[in-house]
Amino acid sequence: MTSPSSAPPAPGRIALYEPGFAADPHAAYARMRATYGPLVPVELSPGVPATLVIGYAQARRILNDPLYFPSDPRVWQQEIPASCPVRPMMEWRPNALRSSGPAHSRYRAANTSAIDAVDQHELRARVEKLASSAIADFIGVGSADVLTQYAWPIAFRILSSLLGCPDEIGARIADGMSRIFEATDAEQGNQILGQAVADLVSLRRHHPDDDITSRLIAHPAQLSDEEMGHQLVTLYGAGIEPLTNLIANTQLKILTDDDFSAGLHAGHSTVRDALDAVLYTDPPMANYCISYPPYPADIDGVLLPAHQPVVISMAACNNDPELTQGQGAIAGNRAHLAWSIGPHTCPARSHAYLIAETAVSYLLDALPEMDLAVPAAELRWRPGPFHRALESLPIVFTASR
């Protein structure tokens, strides 16, 4: 039997799940653009066709048109087995991400209210405390993996703290989420994740506290246990992996872009500029914002099939030549699509910025002389149709107490 990683795509379609795509996606986007234009036939997994949108103007049109491009996949998934590795990232859930109309408004209002109540000053202090603790574990060694020893622990612990999640439940949530993002054991990961968030909901129904989960439970939307579980799945999915990779990808840029690094040390640019440069070129969720048109949809003369996924490539759209030609440097320009736009814009954008900026700044202050431990060309990117994620980010520095 052919394994998912080696299965050839359908004729005329480009496989986004192959290691070659992960190794150099921007070269792949350039080939796509030259061959197909802004709308590209792809496969997300063997036997799972989709249209990848790599044109900025076309993406904006689709993201701002929830009537013709709703995010409800229930008709699509009738033909997709539960064992499909990308299904958990795409299937219907009773939450804002996979709903439209009144249901979307109800779920989004609850989430926005619960998230907006987070105190930004307290959040920064929590991140600094976690960053200090993580650095203390390896500063005496002289080497570390920024991804696994710094970025991931901060993202995981800060999210668990915000959601009022104990370590034992949080560890199961992280395990399930990792399996889903890796698309290697996604069905099992979905089951692990579902049980863990159900346990968290039960805990906070009986023991409410000052956290996002408790505020969601208390919201006038009166979310059921099932609905609560799926809100938490979305929050964890949008929080752990993308935030981890945003921190790591930003640190990689600072370590490998000499001009940018010099500007940063000279005060001509900031960590926020580095974050936005990464959100343009290597956003942690490179291809997502999925919609499922209920009828065949005509976009610039290309007919998109009904009930087939339409995936926005934030990475490719941000670098659309029609958008970037003649504009020069993009540092400081925040017109990218990394947070999406329209009704599904990320409701925690300011929080994610604050967490990533604080984490990267703290690491730079603590280890001002750090360098990559291996040549940049030897770094490896994890395969997968959706994320832009390193396998590791090893660094070296002068050890100290």
SSE inventory with pairings:
Elements: E1 14-15, H1 19-23, H2 25-36, E2 39-45, E3 48-53, H3 56-63, H4 87-90, H5 101-116, H6 120-136, E4 143-145, H7 146-163, H8 167-182, H9 186-206, H10 212-218, H11 225-256, H12 258-266, H13 271-281, E5 287-291, E6 297-299, E7 302-304, E8 310-313, H14 314-318, H15 321-324, H16 349-366, E9 371-372, E10 394-396
Parallel strand pairs: 1-2, 3-8
Antiparallel strand pairs: 2-3, 4-10, 5-8, 6-7, 9-10
Helix pairs in contact: 5-10, 6-7, 6-16, 7-11, 8-9, 8-11, 9-11, 11-12, 11-13, 11-16
Structure description:
The chain has 401 residues and is an alpha+beta fold. It has a single domain (14-396), classed as Cytochrome p450 (Orthogonal Bundle). The protein is 51% helix and 9% strand. The chain has helices at residues 19-23, 25-36, 56-63, 87-90, 101-116, 120-136, 146-163, 167-182, 186-206, 212-218, 225-256, 258-266, 271-281, 314-318, 321-324, 349-366; strands at 14-15, 39-45, 48-53, 143-145, 287-291, 297-299, 302-304, 310-313, 371-372, 394-396. A hairpin with a 2-residue loop joins strand 2 (39-45) and strand 3. Helix 11 packs across helix 12.
